[in-house]
Amino acid sequence: MSIALDVHLKIGGIIFPDMDQCDFTGPFEALARVPNSSFMTLWKDKNPVRDLAGMQLLADTTFEEAPQLDVLLVPGGHGQEALMHDETVLSFISNQAAGARYVFSVCTGALLCGAAGLLQGKHATTHWTAMEVLPLYGAIPGNERVVIDDRFISAGGVTAGIDGSLIVVSLLRGEKVAQELQLYMAYDPQPPFQSGSPEAAPADIVVTVTERARTITQRRLITGRAYQAALTKA
């Protein structure tokens, strides 16, 4: 059931250094246009941050200023790894999740949610290079482009965030509104190459991209194993 249109919705997305901006800006296209809603760009402060490729983004709302949100968007990217022990970020995610209607992660934003304690026993997905990290946070990994488990919605790598955001819109305001936004966005994927997943891509392409991600993948595994060991010790 969608939420009554006269209920104003508060939606917010976190930004952080070395994120992948498309994890944020892709979903922003839909989430910022939800009828009778306001969208907040969130970070610890209002200083510019640069994404992984150097694009500058600016928060309009600090964590301290943020109200209780109806939807929290948690994007990913290489910079996620630097936040896995950041209590300010993890506490914000955890506290917001307690009262939010939905928490929506994109790409390796799911790992941040895991570090915040949100993935225990939850079905979730993430970028394909980080899929083996999910179980270390108690998650049940799924290969679907978007996975819904109660109030937790996760999307796979990067562009899957657009798919996930339209699903979130449908949960908030109904499928008709989501379809209207999809048409406005002209979101009609017709990729020029069939290499958008490790299952579809040529084997040599998979090897190249996997190798390119090896360093960050190993760091994520080390962090996840340390998290799991700490839980076991506790």
Short description:
With 234 residues, the chain is α/β, with parallel strands linked by helices.
CATH topology: Rossmann fold
Q: How would you state the average pLDDT, rounded?
A: 97
How far apart are the termini?
Answer: 40 Å
Rounded to an integer in angstroms, the radius of gyration calculated over CA atoms is: 17 Å
Query: Largest beta sheet, briefly?
Result: 7 strands, mixed
Helix content: 25-40%
* Portion in beta strands: 15-25%
Indicate the low-confidence ranges by residue numbers: none
The CATH architecture name reads: 3-Layer(aba) Sandwich
Shape: globular
What is the count of β-strands? 11
Count helical runs: 7
Order of helices and strands: EHEEEEEHEHEEEEHHHH
Placed side by side, the strands forming the largest sheet appear as 5-2-1-6-7-11-10
For the record, what is the CATH homologous superfamily label?
Class I glutamine amidotransferase (GATase) domain
Can you walk me through this structure?
This protein is α/β, with parallel strands linked by helices and 234 residues long. The chain has one domain: Rossmann fold (3-Layer(aba) Sandwich), CATH 3.40.50.880. It has seven helices and eleven strands. The strands form three sheets. The chain has a seven-stranded mixed β-sheet with strand order 5-2-1-6-7-11-10, sandwiched between helices. Strands 3-4 form a two-stranded antiparallel sheet. A two-stranded parallel sheet has the order 8-9. Helix 1 runs parallel beside helix 4 and helix 4 packs across helix 5. The mean pLDDT is 97.
